[in-house]
Amino acid sequence: MGLNHEEIRALAQQLDDAARHARPIPMLSLSSPLSLKDAYLIQRAAILLRAQRDERLVGMKMGLTSRAKMQQVGVHSPIYGHLTHAMRLMDGGTLQRADHCHPRVEPELAFLLKRDLRGPVSPAEALLAVEGVCAALEVIDSRYQDFKFTLPDVVADNASSSRFVLGSVVQSPAAFDISNLGMIMERNGVTAEIGSSAAIFDHPARSLAALANLLSEVGESLKAGQIVLAGGATAAIHLHPGDHVRLLVDGLGSAELRVA
Ligand code: OOG
Ligand code: MG
Questions:
Q1: Coil, strand or helix: which one is 230?
Q2: Secondary structure letter of residue 181 according to DSSP
Q3: Could you tell me the distance, in angstroms and rounded to a whole number, from the CA of residue 106 to the centre of ligand 1?
Q4: Which uninterrupted H or E stretch holds 89?
Q5: How does strand 104-113 pair with strand 237-238?
Q6: Going by C-beta distance under 8 Å and a sequence separation of 6 or more, which residues neighbour residue 206?
Q7: Residue 173 and residue 205 in contact, taking contact as beta carbons nearer than 8 Å
Q8: DSSP 104-145
Q9: Which of 175, 160, 172, 177 has its CA nearest to residue 232?
Q10: What is the pLDDT of residue 246?
Q11: Which of 52, 131, 183, 204 to pair with 194, CA 20 to 30 A apart?
Q12: pLDDT for the residue 1
């Protein structure tokens, strides 16, 4: 019924090629019947291709955890993706526009895990596995033409993961309330988006717990030392060469990037 192993691998290869050459492709669902289960298999097959190029898994991301994000892309279900070390940009670092199809950036929070986390867990239990929380910018870049996709398409495309930046201020959620932090994303010194961490699944910890719970359905778990992006608090904004984007989060300082 679903796709066979060879078909999964071939579709993963198409997405990997699109990402490496920054050349968008038509949605996979236009030419293949795509279940959500097969979409996650394609995502994992594409991560294996990255692993063969020595990209190391450093964490996971949740996506489509806020209403603003769901409305922007017309997909109304939370999804997850994989993060590798090659996707990381240092705070203040420069992103090459030419390496991307049509990059956008969104304001997030990141969790740094001190313990393995295996679902099912509640949001409060999930927070016990967190060493620290920091501000984060996520650069998303759909490998599909016109940044348009269905739920299984975006899942196969590793939830549009492209780059991420972590801010340098880290707070322990045991001592610092992350439920309703003001978040301001500026582009070239001008406010572009304003939001609150409360927009992330009503509480960012719910996003972390939902990720652990989704992974447990396929027998997987989060590991100590991993980074978890909780999902964009507002809609994402387009990136252009010359842009300087800065995210300010109450009590968590800033995270920034430039575009060349
Ligand atoms: C899908 C990825 C969504 C988020 O934080 O909501 C995401 C997309 O918008 O292309 O990363
Ligand atoms: Mg995101």
A1: coil
A2: -
A3: 8
A4: strand 88-89
A5: antiparallel
A6: 123, 200
A7: yes
A8: EEEEEEEEEESS-B-SS--HHHHHTTEEEEEEEEEEE--SBG
A9: 160
A10: 99
A11: 131
A12: 74
**Residue-range domains of the chain with CATH:** 5-259 (3.90.850.10)
- Per-residue pLDDT, 167: 98
Centre of ligand 2 from the C-alpha of residue 252, in Å: 18
Distance 164 CA to ligand 2 centre (A): 9
Q: How far apart are CA 203 and CA 184, in angstroms?
A: 17
What does the pLDDT read at residue 59?
98
List, for the chain, all residue ranges whose pLDDT scores fall below the cut of 70. Answer: none
Instruction: Say whether 82 sits in a helix, a strand or coil.
Output: strand
Pocket residues for ligand 1 (CB within 6 Å)? 63-65, 69, 73, 106, 138, 140, 142, 154, 159-160, 231-232
Q: Which two tokens stand for residue 157?
A: 């495309």
| CB-based contact 215:235 (threshold 8 Å) | no
State the pTM of this model: 0.98
Check residue 5 and give its pLDDT. Answer: 97
From residue 88, alpha-carbon distances to 163, 176, 259 in Å are 6, 25, 14
Decide: residue 15, CB within 10 A, 0-12 exposed, 13-18 middle, 19+ buried. buried
User: Per-residue b/e over 116-128, b at no fewer than 16 CB within 10 Å?
Assistant: ebbbebebeebbe
Q: Are 155 and 39 in contact, with CB atoms under 8 Å apart?
A: yes
**Contact by Cβ (8 Å): 215, 113:** no
